[in-house]
């Protein structure tokens, strides 16, 4: 039988053991819960007047085969005026409304708000498949010093402009550099390369690709992260405007532009056209014909490049469309370059 001393000791020790047990059983689960609910990946989406597409984009992110506690979605609105804000507010996402700046700044604002250890950047007119986030997390976890990118897939029922601009399949159509439609990297890597260039109106994704390589990170483009791009230019007019926009920043960094084969061919095309006009003025018929041929030959370089890279054998009936697109591409970029030059030297 227990003695009075034993009873006294138990009466004194039991509360202590109970309190220790309470600490052990109450704090550990709490810590585990905090770890589990913290998002591991943050998806950042810049949006400007994307009312036609952003709902479908957010639906795809909501319907992932991945626990929603593992990721968060951040939409950074760039002063939209078409109802984009109202659509985004219907979803359980973080919204940074009415932000101003170039697209690089908009992406950086989302990254600053992100809680995840991994950052994923997509565009508001893109759709990811149901396992995209799972693959993104795995790729980044297995390769922490790699910056991953994907390509763009055609939407259902593409127009001729979409179909013959994006030649090839999901693997052969992969870009050479990162594109803003699909980028995944760890947050510490993003900070290491100082994020996106906020000074350019376009090309901030290509600049990020170069910065990553310069700082010793590996850049890998993979079809595992490709997305369906609903916002492709669907007409020649839209295509020309899009390419002119992409060419706005050639003159900002001439040294880097001179390393870009595309820029060199644009210069070659402009030079050929200029010389053709000069020879016409001075009635140098033989030389004029040569420079006109050279001018119209420049787009062929891009057409051949796209066909080879896409590993496709287009029907003969498609060749005029492919060439026409590259001709528009060269002229739109040339126009943008000339406009930038004149703006620079304008008093």
UniProtKB/TrEMBL annotation:
The keyword Lipid biosynthesis does not apply. This is Cellulose synthase/poly-beta-1,6-N-acetylglucosamine synthase-like glycosyltransferase. Residues 42-152 form the Glycosyltransferase 2-like domain. It comes from the Bacteria. GO terms for molecular function: transferase activity. The chain crosses the membrane at residues 262-281, 287-304. Keywords: Membrane, Transferase, Transmembrane, Transmembrane helix. Pfam families: Glycos_transf_2. It comes from Tamilnaduibacter salinus. The keyword Membrane applies.
